[in-house]
Amino acid sequence: MGYRKGYYKKNGTYVQGHFTNNRSKSFSNRNNGCMIIVLALFAFSSIISCSESTDSTENITNSNSGSGSSTNSNCPTKTCADFKTQAEAQTTYNSNRKCYKNLDGNGDGKACESLK
């Protein structure tokens, strides 16, 4: 919108100054760049917020399962109490050391050393 100064018509009458819409009725080309940037930022922020909510959901699931740590959600929660012998715990630990790193408390590669 712009302000139009007062002017005289051909018949001699005076038209007082007023605000007018001096843009064309079609979408203005000078704002297309801004609109594209705004839409791109909106799309990017929605992608980020969706991925963060997925991560936080996995962390909540893991913390509710009793482990208290935020490990990979594909790993089942196992503790030394879940095994009868050290050999069972060691076999499970060897199958995936990253998932079952809580079975090896001191990091020496032997799982559940307190079991016999």
UniProtKB/TrEMBL annotation:
Residues 54-75 are annotated as: Disordered. Residues 54-74 have a biased composition (Low complexity). Signal peptide: none annotated. Residues 76-113 form the Excalibur calcium-binding domain. InterPro entries: Excalibur_Ca-bd_domain (IPR008613). Pfam families: Excalibur. This is Excalibur calcium-binding domain-containing protein. It comes from Flavobacterium quisquiliarum. The lineage of its organism: Bacteria, Pseudomonadati, Bacteroidota, Flavobacteriia, Flavobacteriales.
